[in-house]
Amino acid sequence: VQLQASGGGLVQPGGSLRLSCTASARTASNNGMGWFRQAPGKEREFVATISWNGGTTYYADSVKGRFTISRDNAKSTMYLQMNSLKPEDTAVYFCAVSRYSGSTTYTSGYHYWGQGTLVTVSS
After folding, report:
1. How many CA atoms lie within 13 A of 111 on its CB side?
2. What's phi and psi for 42, nearest 5 deg?
3. What is the Cα 6 distance to its own chain's centre?
4. Residues 24-61: pLDDT tens digits?
5. What is the pLDDT of residues 52-93, one digit of tens each?
6. What is d(CA 38, CA 26) in angstroms, rounded to the nearest whole number?
7. How far is the first Cα of the chain from the last one, in angstroms, to the nearest whole number?
């Protein structure tokens, strides 16, 4: 499975962006998926995850209430709607496919990763 993340860019604080992640294989629709991010000099951290059918989602406390994860299995695509962006949201955002059908918050639970898309929040 190959993943292509897109939608990153430069946005002012308080602005919005929508990230997309498209999988090369429909088999990804049977698995949970997630978003992680990595800021310069920091460890990769969990952002949000969604189960195979979209029925269960979890968010990091730092983004809860501002970010929304969703997926469209017919298009083999997952989304991350990011609102009220803050400078501390600046990072490379990675999408990933879980080893499991449910939602997973730890990196070792994922076996396919996209290349990342850069989000910069700055005035």
Report:
1. 6
2. -120, 165
3. 10
4. 877 678 899 999 999 999 999 999 999 999 999 999 99
5. 999 999 999 999 999 999 999 999 999 999 999 999 999 999
6. 27
7. 37
